[in-house]
Design goal:
The protein has helices at 4-17, 39-46, 102-106, 141-148, 162-170, 176-181, 191-201, 214-233, and strands at residues 23-28, 51-57, 60-65, 70-74, 79-85, 89-90, 96-98, 113-119, 123-129, 135-139, 274-278, 281-285. It is of the alpha+beta class and 294 residues long.
Length: 294
Amino acid sequence: MPELPEVETIKNDLQDKIIGKKIISIFPLWKEIVKDIPFDAFAGQVEGQKIAAVERRAKNLIIKLSGGLSLLIHLKMTGHFLLSEDSAEVSQDGRWIKAENKNLTDDKQNQYVRIIFRLDNGQMLAMSDLRKFAYIKLVDDKELKTFLDKYGPEPFDKDFTAEKLGEILSKKKTAIKKVLMDQSQIAGIGNIYADEILWASRVHPLSLANKLPKKDVEAIYKHTKKILSESLKRRGTSTSDFRDTSGQPGTFGDFRNVYRRTDLPCPVCGGPIRRISLGGRGTHFCPTCQKETK
């Protein structure tokens, strides 16, 4: 699933390339990607609008339009945006038939285009989504604010301090990994980065959040910022479906220490990485380096 670094990478790419451009037409290969209103009504309100801004909140991508509405987009498990020249061709089942950028035609993870926005600068903005869980909603400012207000602080906000993290954790009598992934508590962290943060902090994922000593809270805070920053520099993790807007994978996956490394040696102690299920999600950790706090 695209998490904070992956969505931020897409946001940064789109800020550089599509702000000020007009959406001249929308071509759906799967109309159900648009939620809450009929596709024709959606297209009627979006076509002709200029892109005023591109933002991110938690794992959501927000494309603000000149008419005062916004596209609220959640990429869910396998969604990602791709930019191409307008002369590219996509088949009815979402495969790139022709494109100057061979990442689009040659990488199977890009072959699930569900919707295309044609822009007035000769570009196509397409969303590929293998599992069809991603969605686009058209919202006004009030709806957008109501939706985004439910999220917790962003890890890079100036107000997100070690003390703030300690305050959040002190109120949660549940496993620390669940708290890190709870978007109402801290925004943007998912399965990949929760595993990596806790390993780097030497904290067991089942440790109770409200029982963690101050040193562990400070370690989690430090490594949250460090790991998310490093992944952003490497344009995200692509151990599964994620690709950036040029269709290329991110490289942070080459530097992960525990996520999806079951039975491989821990980089510190050499013992095997273990996998358990926590809240229905695969959770990876080193039982030697990460001792549980109860």
